[in-house]
Every structure is written in C-alpha cells, then in structure tokens.
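Let's study a protein:

===
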Amino acid sequence: MDMNFEKLVSVIIPTLNEEEGIEEVIEDIPEEGLKRLGYETEILVVDGGSSDETVEKVKEKGVDVFQAGEGKAEGVRLGFKEAQGDYVFLIDGDGSYPGEKIIDMVNELENGCDMVLGSRFAGEIQQGAMTTKNKIGNKILTFLANRLYGTDVSDLCTGLRGMDRNVLENNKVPGRGFEIEAGIHTVFSHENISEIGIRYDKRKGTSKLKTVDGLKIAGRLFKGKFKKR
C-alpha cells in the first residue's frame, strides 16, 4: 500500500472465521479521532484461511486483506511486515476489545512508552467474557512473564496492544500460534511498557484458544529467556 501521510497509525486485525465480529471491529477503529490527533489510519486484516464470510465482509468494508499461513503468529508477522505506520496496533477480530481506546493508547506512545497494553485486569471484564480457568491461566502466565523478564504488567495475553514501529523493525518476533503475545513481550521487555485499563466484552463466535496453548505460551517465555531465538 502506498502511504504518503506525515503521521500514520497501522491497525492489524488477525482473523480466522470471525464473520460475527469483524465488521464491528473495523467500524470501532477511531479513524476520525486519530485524524484529530494528526494521524491517518491504515487497517490491515491478516486472515489465516477463514472458511466463513470473514474475508467477504472485510472487503465490503473496503479494507485490505492479506492471506497468511496457519496460526495467529504467522498472520501477525505478516501484518508487521506490511504495516507502514509510526505506531502499530494489534486488535483481535472477535469484537471483545474496545477499538476506541486506541486513541488513549496513541497518547501513551507519544508520551514516550514503546508498547502500551490494553489491560483487561486493570479495567473491567464483562460477566461471562472470560472463564475462571482462563482468568487463572492468564494471571499465572503474566506472573511468570514478570518474574522472568523483570516487567510489571497485568495482562500478558491481551489482544489489544500498540507498539513503536522502530522497536519492531529492529527485532524478529518469535513464537507460533497464540505464543505471539509472549514473543512480543520478550522483544519489548527491556523497553518502556505501559498499560491502560479497558472493558473486555464477550467475544462473538467461537474461541480458538485451547488449554494446551497456555503451556505453549509458558514454553515460549522460558525459551525467550534461556535460549537463543
């Protein structure tokens, strides 16, 4: 995509069978609000082979779709490669994260942080949006990440985060599938990380996350700390 804007925010949306939520996610990206801050917005959907109407609905919105390999991580890395923004955001395509918070997150990045997380645990979780098992799993993984990397975050696995492009360009983000958030954490662990509290709503459609993914995420954290990537 040919972009000639002075300041640009890229928003990457990884998808796999998100036909129920993807239109709302795109509509909630605060393009007008970002314009008032002096930024144009680039939205990139990276699809992992959806078999439903996800891609068709994205194209109806006039948004670019990139076909990625299987797994969330491959889609995210493709999005990083294609994104041209000064700041690069990730938001899940299931309608559970508040896209309007990107404005507040851009302010955090402008004020000197290198990565800003939209934290569900520092904000509000809608009743029924996260199972008790997933809450406990998230807290264990976040505790592990903080102990291994000396960070102080409250939501390692959030699906809404913004990053300074300069840090991304100088690093290869490791991980497969849902390990990608842990891989991003390993890259930014020595940088300035901040958080804002967000409201987390029930997802639209079926979750792809499995119990084994939590073990893989923990493994990625250990690999990033003790092994060469």
